[in-house]
Amino acid sequence: MDIKQLKFLIALDETRHFGQAAARCHITQPTLSMRLRSLEEELDLPLVNRGQRFEGFTAPGERVLAWARTVLAAYDGLQAEAAACRGNLVGTLRLGVVPLSSFDPVPLMQRLHAEHPNLRFELSALSSEQILEQLANNRLDLGVSYLERLDGERFDSLAFSETCMGLLYDQRFFSFGDAPLSWKSLIELPLGMLTSGMHFRQSIDHNFHSRGLAPQPLLQTDSVHQLLQAVHGGLCCAVMPLEGGLENLTDHLRLQPIESAQTLARLGLIMRRSAPRSALAEACFAIYQKSSTGS
Q1: Residue 282 CB neighbour total at 10 angstroms
Q2: Looking at residue 293, what is its pLDDT?
Q3: Residue 182, CA distances (Å) to 96, 211, 212, 216, 290 in order
Q4: Are 76 and 106 in contact (CB under 8 A)?
Q5: CA–CA separation, 260 vs 240, rounded Å?
Q6: Please, what sign has the CA dihedral across residues 187, 190, 191, 196?
Q7: In a 3-state reduction of DSSP, which class is residue 247?
Q8: Alpha-carbon distances, residue 287 vs 107, 243, 263, 291 (angstroms)
Q9: Distant-in-sequence, close-in-space partners of 117: CB < 8 Å, separation ≥ 6
Q10: For the segment 276-294, what is each residue's pLDDT rounded down to a tens digit?
């Protein structure tokens, strides 16, 4: 057994296709199949259901796959740790961010990349639950998520400033002057919202309902990209984080503050406490902590 075989197994899980997995790993499909069969023989377990095409993993295969991810994460962490001891950061920093976070990760990534050119980044949009699960399983290095009910014994965190909200609109279709908007004034507008159940949507609903208001959104979607497209097309307006920088995406977008508009819980940068802990995560955590304290 070697690291490459585990990489092949993970690539097959992510692509769900033998040919695509082989292409991702820069080998031929027969080579991929042969190496996976060798792994099955060594473990004396069937890992993959094979037919005319990939048909998923066996029950033992799913369990082996989970271990393969853990082993590969540890291997990557070992390489990153050795590089960090030499004064360099290499590898891939895996960052998970909740949808419509008021935290912009780009400046942090720019700073890290400028200081460590060999560092790469993997950015994922995930729910709060997924972020905590993947941090715990060492599939993420850092998370940006809500700190509500965070287990302080399992995770370190740095709280961000309170998230305020505003109304994002395209000024070619709407105009609201300069004064902050009231929640009552939003009721008559065509509103686009994330689907219920998403944390940011829950904060919006709370702000409306606590004032005895019941919005009827024109559009509901689980895609931030689709929501932004609808706003840019003039179909609707949308309540968004005030400090998210979304109004800078095009020359036509504006973000108008809303009176007394905060999310239910604070966001923060989260890192697992238990070993093995990524050297990349620790470096990024320290840089943000230093910048946030102004030291």
Answers
A1: 18
A2: 62
A3: 33, 11, 13, 16, 37
A4: no
A5: 14
A6: positive
A7: helix
A8: 11, 20, 26, 6
A9: none
A10: 677 788 888 887 787 766 5
Which residues, including other chains, have CB under 8 Å from residue 121's CB and lie 6 or more apart?
Answer: 92, 93, 95, 109, 112, 113
- The alpha carbon of 256 is separated from its chain's Cα centroid by a whole number of angstroms, namely 26
- In sequence order, the 6+-apart residues with CB closer than 8 A to the CB of 285 are 142, 156, 158, 269, 271
E strand or H helix at 114: helix 106-115
Query: Are the C-beta atoms of 167 and 237 separated by less than 8 Å?
Result: yes
Residue with tokens 């980044």: 121
Which stretches does DSSP call E strand in the chain? 48-50, 54-57, 91-97, 119-125, 142-146, 155-159, 164-170, 191-194, 219-221, 237-241, 253-262, 267-272
CB distance 148 to 120 below 8 Å: no
Six-digit token pair at 247? Answer: 């109004």
For residue 110, the surrounding DSSP H or E stretch is helix 106-115
Type of residue at 201: R
Q: Residue 216: is it exposed, middle or buried by C-beta count within 10 angstroms (0-12/13-18/19+)?
A: exposed
Summarize pLDDT for 62-111 with one digit per residue, the tens.
Answer: 999 888 988 887 787 777 777 777 777 777 889 999 888 878 888 888 88
3-state secondary structure of 57: strand
Report pLDDT digits (tens) over 190-232.
999 998 878 889 999 999 999 999 999 999 998 889 999 999 9
Which H/E stretch holds residue 260? strand 253-262
Q: How far is residue 124's CA from residue 94's CA, in Å, rounded to a whole number? A: 8
Structure tokens at 194: 């994330």
Strands 253-262 and 237-241: unpaired
